[in-house]
Request: fold
Amino acid sequence: MCALVGVAAIATSGCASSAARDAPAAPPSSPAAFSTAVNLRSGDLPGAEVGAPATIGRHPNAAFAACDGGVNPSLVVYEARSVLLMTGHESELLRSRVTTWPSERLARRNLTALAAKRGARCELHYGGSSVARVTIELPGGARAVGLRAAVPGQRAPEVAYHDIVGFVSGPAEVVLTAAGFGRPVPAQTERHLLGVLYRRATEARGT
Reply:
């Protein structure tokens, strides 16, 4: 999924302050259970508020998948998004997504397509004014990869920075989506949340 569409989807209206808005428990040893174990929760970012509840269900974007060479979203086995975290008077919006594919090969193919040059060209086609590759180091020498798209705001010279950065864990694609209005979400914030996601994914896989 492209950064522009992915981050626009996280900016849903309405606020929820209760941790009960986190994703519900699921049966063990299932894609749903893995997603619940890994996705961000209301207390993962100190000082953040919850702006929208966790959601379950695919958000297909076949047009972008065809554009960047990603996997057809109809093949998704299970997909879940975390609660929406808001900081800085709603100037920063963050949400994670866990998408389970039929195989690890397909998960890697989809993430690789997003972070490649072709994916960057698609971001420009879909409204980005500039696109840059993002790489964030994870524990144990692993890396999360993705893109940052700068998008013109409704009023010049406003700019919104949309990041989508992720890694693969087994057949699951684990992605952090971050939107910063006026400036990018700080790298340390993204590194912290991706570290949380990576640790949970590693623990959930038993590796």
About this structure: Residues 3-205 form one domain. Residues 3-20, 24-28 have pLDDT under 50 and may be disordered. The chain has one domain: 3-205. The beta strands are 49-52, 55-56, 78-81, 84-87, 92-100, 130-137, 143-152, 159-169, 172-181.
